[in-house]
Design goal:
It is a single chain. Helices cover 43% and strands 0% of the residues. It contains four helices and no strands. The protein has helices at residues 8-14, 17-30, 38-44, 49-60. The longest helix is centred in the first third of the chain and has 14 residues, at 17-30.
Length: 93
């Protein structure tokens, strides 16, 4: 017997074309691999509060010029340092 587990929450939020467009735009501008789950992880972060924040921004944005609203996204890149032990034979010296 096989069990199939589907993350319905992730599928539902990405059915909203605005979220898909936002993800695609962010990934293109920040040069992020499309398979990277960073956007979905962000939305699920803080027990879904990030998703609600973006949904509120998208749903309640007013065209009033006096109200300035913005979403800012950035990318941080960290170098990974690794120590490796390599055996060298006497013939390679």
């Amino acid at each position: 017997m096989f069990e199939l587990h589907i993350d319905l929450r992730r599928k539902i939020k990405m059915d909203d074309l605005r979220f898909r467009w936002l993800k695609d735009t962010i990934y293109t501008i920040l040069d992020v691999n499309g398979a990277d789950p960073a956007f979905e992880d962000f939305l699920e972060g803080d027990d879904g509060a990030n998703e609600l924040l973006i949904a509120k921004f998208l749903n309640e944005a007013t065209p009033n010029v006096d109200d300035e609203n913005a979403l800012l996204f950035h990318k941080e890149v960290f170098e990974e340092l690794r120590d490796e032990q390599v055996e060298i034979s006497m013939f390679e010296i």
